[in-house]
Amino acid sequence: MTPPDSIGATMPTNEAIKSSSAAPSPTDSGGGEPPIHRRPWRTLRKYATIFRVSLSERMTYRSDFLIGTTLRFLPMVTTILLWQAVYVGSGQASLAGFNYNEMIAYLLLVHISRMFSSMPGLAGGIAREIREGTLKRYLTQPVDMIGYLTSYRIAHKVAYITMSFIPYAILFFICRNYFETFPDPLTLLAYAISLILAFMVGFYFEATVGMVGFWFLEVTSLLYIVMTLNFFISGHMLPLDLLPQPWQGILKALPFQYMAYFPAVVFLGKVRGMNLVYHLLGELAWAVFFLVLARFLYRRGLRRYGAYGG
Amino acid sequence: MPIIEVEGLTKTYRVFQKRDGVRGAFQGLFKREYKDVHAVEGISFSIEPGEMVAFLGPNGAGKTTTLKMLSGLIYPSAGAASVLGFTPWEREDAFRRQFALVMGQKNQLWWDLPAGDSFELLREIYGIDRHDFRATLAELTEILGVEALTRQAVRELSLGERMKMELIAALLHRPRLLLLDEPTIGLDVVAQVAIQKCLRAYHERRGVTMILTSHYMRDVEALCDRVLVITHGSLVYDGPLSGIVDRFGRFKLIRLEFEGTPPDNLDRYGDVVKHEGPLAEIRVERSEVAAVLGSILEQQTLADVSVVDPPLEEVIAKVFKEARAENDAA
Amino acid sequence: MIRTFGKYARLLGNLARYTLTRELAFRGNFLVKVSVEVLWLGILIAFFRTVFAKTNTLAGWTEPQYFFFVGCFFAVNGLIETLFMENCNEFAELVRTGDLDFLLLKPIDEQFLVTCRRVDWGTAPNVIMGFILMGISLVQMGWQFDAVRVAIFLLTFLCGTIISYCFMLLLTSLSVWMVRNQSLMEMWWLFSSLARYPKEIFAGPWGAPLGFIFTFLIPILVVVNVPSNAMVRMLEPGIVLLTVVATVILLWLSRRFFQKALRSYRSASS
Predict the structure, then answer these.
(1) Number of domains forming the structure of chain A
(2) For A190, which of A155, A286, C18, C97 is 20 to 30 Å away at the CA?
(3) What's the pTM value of the predicted model, to 2 decimals?
């Protein structure tokens, strides 16, 4: 059984969204508006409305949320216990530069990273819209697809993170002893930036994968495989430092580490000084790279789409 | 011995009231408001074997809920029912073997497979003897005129053909009782008539008891001798279709044919519903028909005159409209 | 009794055949599913190889013993996924759309129809992969054939699968009351994480009580632990007995709960 992250690629998970259920209705965009670029404030208001409606939709389901949260704690518990057994078994205080407390702190922190960078249903949703032709509505209504999806996704993320705040606060409070030192303000700032960039890398990476749907209709299978693999190569399961070379070097050169590993080690203060700056710039570069790639593919894809009449 | 006996059947739902906006949704997390919806309120009736009965009523009146309680899909909040000698919501296998429910809005056939495969599966589920199965299937495909279509994937069939397949699926185990919920919904007139014909033919051959809910009066007129009218959860009429007019039709239509052009001031007699050439129709309260007719005959020169009931459909639409208005007022 | 059993077995066979016909029509899907599962097993192996590069034993389990455990988990879970998971996952949707009606109308046990309607052939290879992994680790540890162990392994493997099924049915039943489809797949993944590791890791001031709870009160820990232990580590008659008893109790309990859930079914129209 594969982890839920990869399930999220095709199945609606707790956080997942069926993007088709939230079509931009004419009321959101006001049919006969002038082109977007001339009226920036209206554009902003439009996306703000999309944001608000999506947020309110998310908050409605109480029982699902409570059961979901309770269950969500279980893997955390077993992870802590497993690594406790690993450290006891090895008889060493430090593995690959991580002591036991740091290891648990790391494994808790990757959840925060993934909270920002995982995009359940995004690529699948885009691919479905391409396949079923519902994509057309972005062409007939004065709303940009990637812009719409971004505000929709940010709303869901804000709601999800808000809703998860209390349970996570409790969890981190319970586990506070695993955090030996609290990071200084500058590190915290770097952490915040790395998380926002993690969202961007995650979002535009998945959007890019979704755009591949213009060329290959069965993109969900590709996604399924990528997401399963991502679970390991992003450092979600263990710090990449534990892996032998050359694997460690390869995985650290790929963008996936920014979706889980990197923000966590920033928080733990394992990356400092200029090294931190370079990595943040690297993360930004990857986010921009995927942003440009997604837009490029979208534009090329639309041309192709229009060619055979959608 | 009635095949169905229903006594004081009631179903009440609790529904969560969603509040608007972000704040409302947040509040909904902590405190919820519920509303009781009385879908069915103390309905009683009984049905004899071989009858064809229609449930009539506006949307949300409780027809479907009643039907679903009779088929054991949902549990009533109060009341009792005996269907084929069983309590339906205990869902005993012996009970479920003897009836069928067809829902026009849903399909049970496997979408990607030929209907024949679904039938085969149903044979297995109902434990139908292979020989009987073949005979029934042949008979049904003949009645419905779909012999050639059972090997075609269901998704490739037209809506009408699919409905016929659904009917076959429901009748394969030769139920003694057939419950039909909107069996012709979404079909064009030709397909509607075809389904009606099949149902009547099947009824004649097998004497099966049928209960039907439908929006289309034509279905009801074509099939049912008896009608139960349900409006917001209560039974307001039980009797023959024509009786509805007597019971609810407060008006009659006076049809006049003049020798020349009719005069313009006809509206002093009542509501003028039609005024074309030498013809006019005036709607008049039942109690005043005699008086109005008297004064018309006295004052006008006529070629012909007749008094008729307004069309059934109109009467029923009016009953429903009034029921809704009452409901809104309450 | 035997006739009923025969009827249900035949029905199951037919359902399996129909789903296979359907699955073969979408061969691409099937291949993707299988390759993802192979990939996932590969990731698990990579993960534990990395861990065992740093330590010789994990909670008292040597590397080959541990891989036997992983294989056993993969096989149990594969069986659950092949036979029940997709059906249970669909239950919430059936409730939401009202299509559950059709299943309730049939003169067949509702639980059987809801949970065994379809066979998900795409995950069937997981069972084989699990057994292959178990076989490899048996060879690696130089396991001596022991008929008693094999018999007890098979018994508790079956019990473990049934226990998993019962827990899944309990989770499935919950969806009748839920407003929105909380993906059962996700709930199951989270819940079954308890069965994924040896029960010996449940140590320490709060780990040990949790281990007790999940062995005796909510016996999810016995699912993979008992058969693996019986096969490659020590044979404990007490816990084997507990597993059998728990299986019977859970079968009864989950069925009651499921029937209670059905009473709350509203049958949405349209």
Answers:
(1) 1
(2) A155
(3) 0.79
